[in-house]
Amino acid sequence: MSNNIDLKRGLDIPITGTAVQKTKKAVKPDVVAVKPTDFRGLLPRLLVREGDKVLAGSPILADKKSPEILFASPVSGTVTEIVRGEKRKLLEVRIKADESQEYVDFGSRKVAGLSAGEIKEALLKSGLWPAFIQRPYGIIANPEVRPKAIFISAFTTAPLAASTEYAFRDEMDYIQTAINAISKLTDGGVHVSLNSSNYSGTPFHKLENVVFHVFSGKHPAGNVGVQIHHVSPIMKGETVWTVSPLMLAAIGKLFATGKYDMSRLVAVTGPEASAPCYVQGIAGMQMDCIADFRKDKTAETRFISGDVLTGTNVGEHGFLGFYDNQVTLIEEGNKYEMLGWAKPFRTSLFSFSHTYFSWLTPNKKYEMDTNLHGGPRAFVMSDVYGKVLPMDIYPVYLIKACLAGDIDKMEKFGIYEVLEEDLALCEYVCPSKVEIQSILSDGINLMMKEMA
Questions:
Q1: Ranges for the Na(+)-translocating NADH-quinone reductase subunit A C-terminal domain (predicted)?
Q2: Is 85 helix (H, G, I), strand (E, B) or coil?
Q3: Tens digits of per-residue pLDDT, 391-426?
Q4: Quick check: 220 pLDDT over 70?
């Protein structure tokens, strides 16, 4: 049984570089990295030293606030470098992978006979507990909390995102195993959202032991935060968990095979990708592994772990994020255009506000770069955010409350319901060039500090 929700507001960004559904390469990374920066609010404690030998599944880090939450190595090999930043902040633990991979054996188990406590213990011990993201705030789920529900978005509308149907076509049995396991961790059920345009064509509609919801609309209809808002809004004092299909597949493999297996199909996308496609990769793999997919090696290219709206600029020698199965290659927009504001007939640029004539060619795709086409200016009141945000909140007032550090108003205007990804489109269309995601992140961090 499902309910149908039609979202009228949103925007699909017409950018070139969608990955064709073909796997062209199996990546075998020489070095992988475990990055504490992938996890909001984590205070990491190192469990290894340079030169230590590890197996795939060996604990690398622990959370100082919750020592039972572990972070494991995705490969077997040798810890070669511990990278620190300012004030000795831990940035990366780099591991040189062995030629032949060895795994910690956690033992395969039938989830039907396991209790909620045993499932939780298995996930904590294996390093897969960080798969659960807790809302509000988007932090790693608290093992001591029983959420009111668990939400999964089985489709994505983010720019150039990996197709869930293709990426997980061979892992549906693992995903079903994971759902059977995590359903024991909540009394409110596991809620799965599907896309109305492909409801019968996706293998996710055959899942059992879930509650279905069907969404239609443009991006951000695929964001789990938007879906939660329309199904079961988060009130003060409530907790929900989210988990992605990518993490579900890893959880299912743990119970089915006893291995911490973070392999995944990764979509190589973007205007600067010579042949957008999929590669067989692994969490923490280095961007050097996909260097041959770069269109122009002489151009200055941004390597993004994730999509162009919410991904992380990791650099050409950086590493894939823990939660990501997409890499976007896009040209750095560091070119100055003389009198650009006075050229309304530029057919190569897209405009949401009809500044250019892109609205006359709605099906055209554009080779976008990172140029902002202007600089920050006064933050004025506008209704433009409401045109792309299908949520019943006031984004302008929320962002201004974050700027002012006003906790009461942040609560009033919906801070518990949103993460940066939910307001990413607002930043994209912002006429004032305001860094909305950064401001919202600061507001969330303030809430975590003051409401702890």
A1: 266-314
A2: coil
A3: 999 999 999 999 999 999 999 999 999 999 999 999
A4: yes
Give DSSP secondary structure letters for 427-438.
HHH-TT---HHH
What span, in angstroms and rounded, lies between the C-alpha atoms of 139 and 126? 19
pLDDT at 1: 43
pLDDT tens-place string over residues 347-363: 778 888 877 777 778 88
Do residues 173 and 252 lie in contact, with contact meaning Cβ atoms separated by under 8 Å?
A: yes
Eight-state DSSP code of residue 364: -
Strands, DSSP E only, in 136-229?
Answer: 139-140, 150-153, 190-195, 211-216
pLDDT at position 359 = 74
Q: Does the predicted TM-score (pTM) go above 0.90?
A: yes
Is the predicted pLDDT of residue 343 greater than 80, yes or no?
A: no
Q: Look at residues 242, 248, 46, 60 and name the one whose alpha carbon lies nearest to residue 140.
A: 242
CA pair distance 151, 200, nearest whole angstrom = 20
Residue 64 CB neighbours (<10 A): 11
* Residues contacting residue 29 through CB under 8 Å, at least 6 positions apart: 75, 97, 281, 282, 284, 285, 286, 289
Q: Is 440 helix (H, G, I), strand (E, B) or coil?
A: helix
Q: Is 363 helix (H, G, I), strand (E, B) or coil?
A: coil
Cβ contacts of 232 within 8 Å, gap of 6 or more: 148, 149, 188, 191, 240
How far is residue 440's CA from residue 446's CA, in Å, rounded to a whole number? 10
Tokens 């395969």, residue?
108
Q: Which two tokens stand for residue 377?
A: 């200016």
Q: Which residues contact 438 (CB under 8 A, 6 or more apart)?
A: none
How do the residues of the chain divide into helix, strand and coil, expressed in percent and rounded to 5? 30, 25, 50
- Give the span between the Cα atoms of 287 and 303, in whole angstroms: 8
Torsion of CA 325, 47, 42, 122, to 10 degrees: 70
Dmax over CA atoms of the chain, in Å, equals 69
Least confident of 231-240, 286-295, 322-331, 355-364: 355-364
Q: What is the mean pLDDT of residues 50-77?
A: 98
